[in-house]
Specification:
- The complex is a heterodimer of chains A (about 300) and B (about 375).
- With about 300 residues, chain A is an alpha/beta fold.
- Chain A contains 11 helices and 14 strands.
- In chain A, a hairpin with a 2-residue loop joins β9 and β10.
- The two termini of chain A are about 45 Å apart.
- By secondary structure, chain B is an alpha/beta fold.
- Chain B has 2 domains: about 120 residues, abc type-2 transporter like fold (3-Layer(aba) Sandwich), CATH 3.40.1710; about 190 residues, no CATH class.
- Chain B has a 5-stranded mixed sheet, sandwiched between helices.
- The chains are: A alpha/beta (about 300), B alpha/beta (about 375).
């Protein structure tokens, strides 16, 4: 079966600045694809190009089997796009917002569609409240419900959980998985690592370039990183950071509360350095699983040093 | 120094000035508006308009006619732009506002001067704006009588009867508004001004609000075309505009007793075209402005010259040529001629066809601009 999203070499420039630099992306049907990257890495721009809101300067491809450049309008009709900022009308009630969307998509009978969406959302009792009075989490759920009203085959969610509390985030992700189970393909951008781990596949983008793609396990394995955890007294941990910095084999030493996460590609050199420093300071050290976060921090660090060499 | 510390005030001032400079449109308005107003309106506005266009209706070419025409022109008030032989043509010119006066010198004028039969000339003044006509009329009789006396003396030679007194009678017709009621001129004009102010500003703000609140991105992602979005924004204001028109027209009739000399349907058609042009203009503004504040400033920037240079507040014909040229480029100018023509002068479609054409032109131009400026994408 053809992939739902298949784009190649998508590029967008604003003047001298290349915001998205030859991004190629494939998303299969029913998949939850994570789109990860730091702020300003080009996630939003890429998503906007895929749903026809921006015209790419270069590149080609299809979304839902339609050409991203020539059939932007058809694509718009068949995808559900949720913007990063709440972009429904705060001065309309919840019900009026849903009715507006239902009328635009010509969902008949309109009342029944709105009614059902309200019930699924669990907002029937607040239907006459202004959308502006909802909390951040509820606003996001309302926006998601409005985006799926016309039963799109593809959902593009642009940082849907930014600024939402952990419980609401979890509920939002449960909803995303329910939608995927119904056969809807989802591309969701985020910069939360725990959310990335809930995706089937992830695509990591930084400064407009796609740096890694695959399942979480694949990406971790491919990075070839080894990890150690060092534990002990806070003062000794701080001293350990100083000593590990620049030690052979050590590429990152990141504190997490009372533990220190040490990462490097050369497993043997890393083990030697960690053991030495731990012994010097009376800390305990043990090998650990490399996390996705370790990999991404590593990728960003690599890119930074490449840039420094280039400059 | 609890309530006022200089370093804190200084921090506020620096921040405010930086923000002021960042908002280019506002900054340009603050510096530009006073300057433009001063130059434009300082030079353009004239409450005692001179060199008003006039038509001369005459069949004879005798020296007395010439003397009077020259004398009238020398007053500075009259500028004869049309020399005609038919009164009908002159009627049309004054009806559609091309000329402010029609001076008619009867064909037997010279004969009556010679036979001392108290010759008459007829001055018809467009008195829709009472202030326009007053200066020109007040100088009329003495100037023309003096001119005639001089001419008589020169023709007849030294021995002729020179002290014949004011042999000339100037008959003055103040047309359309014989009593010179200012409201008759102002109230129909206000209709245009009120429509212009509300329609342009409201429409300009409506679309900008979507952009400012971030709802535009969503609207663009939903299956609505630019045309649908534009019409959806525009039509509600058309309804509001219709309400305003009814209110103003009823008030004009009931409160001010403004006559309705012409065809109501023609008036309404003209209003509709004018309102459409204004809404499209507002829509164009909304595609230029990035915030509601800027949209309001753009509307206001357009509003000022419209009020001052359109002939609403000051006589159009009294302005210098360049100011009249600017005035011609404003929809309100043409609308004022149309509404005053139809309401006060009873003008028919034929008479106001050029005004209607101009308004249609504006509507089409603004609609095209709005559609071109509106982007379907966020590029």
């Amino acid at each position: 079966m053809d992939p739902v999203i298949a784009v190649e070499g998508l590029t967008k420039r604003y003047g001298q600045r290349t915001v998205v630099d030859h991004v190629s992306l494939t998303v299969e049907k029913g998949e939850i694809a994570g789109f990860l990257g730091p702020n300003g890495s080009g996630k939003t721009t890429t998503i906007r190009m895929m749903c026809g809101l921006l015209t790419p300067d270069e590149g080609r491809g299809t979304v839902l089997g339609r050409d991203v450049i020539r059939q932007a309008r058809e694509i718009k009709r068949e995808v559900g796009y949720m913007t990063q900022r709440f972009s429904f009308y705060e001065d309309l009630t919840i019900e009026e917002n849903l009715a507006f969307v239902a009328r635009l998509y010509r969902l008949r009978p309109m009342r029944a569609h709105v009614q059902r969406t309200l019930e699924e959302l669990g907002l029937s009792h607040r239907r006459r409240d202004l959308a502006g009075t909802l909390s951040g989490g509820w606003k996001q759920r309302l926006a998601l419900a409005a985006c799926v009203m016309h039963e799109p085959k593809l959902l593009l969610l642009d940082e849907p959980t930014a600024g939402v509390d952990p419980k609401a985030r979890r509920e939002f992700w449960d909803e995303i998985h329910r939608l995927a189970a119904r056969g809807i393909t989802v591309l969701v951008s985020t910069h939360y690592m725990d959310e990335a781990e809930r995706c089937h596949r992830i695509n990591y983008i930084s400064r407009g370039r796609l740096l890694a793609t695959g399942t979480v396990a694949e990406i971790i394995a491919r990075s070839g990183l080894a990890s150690w955890i060092v534990e002990g007294a806070p003062a000794a941990i701080d001293a350990a950071i100083e000593r590990l910095h620049g030690a052979p084999g050590v590429e990152q030493a990141t504190p997490f509360g009372l533990t220190l996460h040490v990462v490097g590609r050369d497993g043997e050199a890393l083990a030697r350095s960690v053991r030495r420093v731990a012994a010097e300071l009376g800390l305990s050290a043990r090998p650990a699983e490399t996390t996705l976060e370790d990999v991404f921090i590593h990728l960003m660090g690599e890119e930074n040093s490449r840039d420094r060499e280039a400059a | 120094m609890r309530w006022l510390a200089w370093h804190r005030l200084w921090a506020m001032l620096v921040k405010e000035f930086v923000q002021m400079r960042r908002d280019r449109v506002t900054f340009a308005m603050m510096l530009g508006v006073p300057l433009i107003q001063l130059v434009l309106f300082g030079f353009a506005i004239n409450n005692d308009p001179k060199k008003l266009p006039a038509a001369l209706v005459t069949t004879s070419e005798d020296q007395f006619t010439r003397a009077i025409v020259t004398a009238l022109e020398n007053t500075g008030y009259y500028r004869f732009t049309h020399i005609l032989i038919s009164a009908e043509k002159a009627d049309l010119l004054i009806d559609n506002g091309t000329v402010s006066f029609v001076v008619t010198i009867p064909s037997d004028f010279a004969r009556r001067v010679m036979t001392e039969e108290r010759p008459q000339i007829l001055i018809e003044a467009d008195a829709t704006d009472p202030s326009v006509a007053s200066g020109a009329i007040s100088t009329l009789s003495t100037v023309s009588a003096n001119a005639l006396r001089r001419e008589l003396a020169a023709t007849a030679g030294a021995g002729a009867v020179a002290g014949g007194g004011a042999a000339l009678e100037a008959v003055v017709h103040r047309r359309y508004n014989p009593e010179g009621v200012t409201q008759f001129n102002i109230v129909p004009g206000l209709l245009g001004v009120i429509l212009q102010m509300t329609m342009v500003m409201m429409t300009a703000m409506a679309l900008t609000r979507e952009v400012e609140r971030g709802t535009m991105e969503n609207l663009l992602a939903l299956p609505a075309t630019p045309l649908e979005i534009m019409l959806g924004k525009v039509l509600p204001f058309l309804v509001v505009g219709a309400g305003q028109v009814v209110v103003v027209l009823v008030a004009a009739r009931v409160l001010f007793g403004v006559p309705m000399a012409g065809d109501m349907r023609l008036l309404l058609a003209g209003i509709l075209i004018f309102v459409l042009a204004l809404i499209f203009l507002g829509y164009t503004f909304s595609t230029l402005a990035r915030t509601q504040m800027q949209a309001m400033q753009l509307s206001f920037f357009f509003f000022l010259p419209s009020i001052l240079l359109s002939g609403f507040a000051f006589p159009f014909r009294g302005m210098p040529g360049w100011a009249q040229a600017i005035g011609e480029a404003l929809p309100l100018t043409h609308f004022l001629r149309l509404v005053r023509g139809v309401m006060l002068k009873g003008a028919d479609l034929h008479t106001v066809s050029s005004q209607i054409a101009a308004l249609i032109g504006f509507a089409v131009l603004f609609a095209a601009l709005a559609l071109i400026r509106f982007r379907r994408t966020l590029d």
